Every structure is written in C-alpha cells, then in structure tokens.
Amino acid sequence: EVQLVESGGGLVQPGRSLRLSCAASGFTFDDYAMHWVRQAPGKGLEWVSGISWNSGSIGHADSVKGRFTISRDNAKNSLYLQMNSLRAEDTALYYCAKAYRGQCFDYWGQGTLVTVSS
Amino acid sequence: EIVLTQSPGTLSLSPGERATLSCRASQSVSSSYLAWYQQKPGQAPRLLIYGASSRATGIPDRFSGSGSGTDFTLTISRLEPEDFAVYYCQHYGSSPYTFGQGTKLEIK
Fold this sequence. Notes:
Chain A is mostly beta strands. Chain A is about 0% helix and about 55% strand.
C-alpha cells in the first residue's frame, strides 16, 4: 500500500524558516518524480515544487522561487521542502504527491499545516 | 504559464442527474496532459482522470473526461451521493503545473 506521510509543519514567524519532510513507502521511491502541492485555508490547490527521480530536474512555482528548495534522499525514501523567508501568504496545508504518467499525481499524503504568523 | 479557468464555480444538481464540468486553458495543453481531481472536505485530492480521458485506477465508469487543445470536460453520467465534492483540473505538460480554481458540485 502506498503511503506518504508529511511532517514538519507548525506555527512560524514571518521571515523564518521551516523544513517539511515526506516519508514514502509502498512503492519504489526512486522510480518516480515527487511534488509538493499546497492549499491555503478555504482555497484551491497550488503546485509548489517538483523533483525528478534522480534530482536532475527541479521546478518551483514563481511564488516560491528563490525562497523554497525541494530535495530528496532516495536512500531514505524521503522528500523534503526547505522553506525560507516565509510569508503570511505561505500559510497552507502542504501535500506531498507522487507523480504518475508524467506529472499528474496519483497518491497524496494527508498534508502538514504551515501557519506563518507573528 | 498556462491559466486554467473552470466553470461553473458552483453546480447544483440532484442525485441521478448528469454533471458537466468545464476547464478552459489559456493556451493549448500539449499531448492532452490534463487531469481531473476530486476533493472532499478534510481529505486529500483524488485523481480521477489523466491524459484528458483515461480513468485512474478504481474510478467508476460514470466519470469520463474529454477534450483537447484548450477545452476540456469532466462528465459524471449519473450522480451518486458520494460525488458531491470539489473538482479541479490540472495541466501537467510543462512546469508550472497549474490547477484550475475548482468547481463545487453541491446537492440541489
């Protein structure tokens, strides 16, 4: 059974940093690209970042470019999102998602909540 | 960046009726890299359709997708009570992989 479990969310002040993690199991992790998608309270879905199976291709949304960095450790079956210079508008539930047939997402975690507030 | 516009914003229908949801792209979506997701309150999204018209694993055949280029449609042939949710389209042909703003399907 595929499982994606996010962790690392919490309350953080504007301008500070946070690192999210996603532990994957139930599939061959290093065969697939992985992504982060976020959802602000009461709002729609926003793709944040994606990384290829071997970390050779990485992309970020313009809204987080230069502040967020996606990475992975295939030996640990883990995906990460380093978030720096956090802003109030980064407040959201952050989902880890597995890529499928290109870059749509067939499995999602339950999300980890990030709240940026003073 | 491809902008996806979904319509209507809210669709009010009764169980047993047919639902038609639209997703229009600001530019052509390459190779029909268009997906549809369903999201219920408090849950993660679920992949319904990929490649514009292929059903994901375990998705009932009352869900169907169609379209190409800039105009795409999700059709639910006969609504079941569990189908009332928010639906999102997503393009995934090239980064950034944007989502539409969603259509809320509510019980009339």
